[in-house]
Design a protein that fits this description.
- By secondary structure, the protein is mainly beta.
- It has a domain of 92 residues: Immunoglobulin-like, CATH 2.60.40.
- It is 4% helix and 49% strand.
- The strands form 3 sheets. The chain has a 5-stranded mixed β-sheet with strand order 4-11-10-6-8, with no helix packed on it. A 4-stranded antiparallel β-sheet has the order 3-5-9-7, with no helix packed on it.
- The longest helix has 6 residues.
- The chain is elongated and about 70 Å long.
- It starts with 14 loop residues before the first strand and ends in a 5-residue tail after the last helix.
């Protein structure tokens, strides 16, 4: 007799599940297969204050010439077993699309950050990612001005 144990790396949403397991423990004739049904029922999360979503990129660095726009995609995932609604608090020189959305359990969504450089805006900002429950998270955005290319530099003439 042998005992086997398996572990998932994320919580499953509530529902009915079927697991199929195949064992190969040596020779070609030593194979086994079994199935098992199980149910997950949850009423509330144990710790409502913990983050239930994951931001893949928490720090975004962008090179943007003065007077230009640049975009960057950031992935947000719902690692909780319940639906979560996300919204953002941000600076006027940064836009996020979509501005709010809902994520089902286990679902991911790409958001598009658009940054404009008018030459006067601050070079760093924090985007607050607000869920409808739990703690907020943040994405740090830093902006550097892209240096002029060699072709652009050759067009610049000194005025005396």
């Amino acid at each position: 007799m042998r005992d086997f144990e398996g572990v998932l790396d994320k919580q499953l949403p509530k529902g009915e599940y079927l697991v199929d397991v195949m064992f190969d423990y040596g020779a070609k004739i030593r194979k086994a297969m079994t199935s098992s049904n199980f149910t997950i029922i949850r009423e509330t999360n144990v710790d409502e204050s913990k983050n239930e979503f994951l931001i893949v990129e928490k720090k975004v660095e962008m090179q943007v010439p003065v007077g230009a726009l640049r975009t960057k995609v950031v992935k947000i995932s719902n690692s909780d077993y319940r639906l979560i609604n996300i919204s953002f608090v941000l600076e006027p020189w940064i836009q996020v699309e979509p501005q709010s959305f809902a994520l089902e359990p286990g679902q991911s969504k790409n958001i598009k950050l658009t940054v404009s450089n008018d030459g006067k805006s601050p070079k760093e900002a924090v985007i607050i990612v607000k869920p409808d429950r739990g703690m907020a998270s943040e994405i740090k955005v830093s902006l550097t001005e892209k240096a002029a290319s060699m072709a652009e530099k050759s067009k610049i003439k000194k005025v005396e």
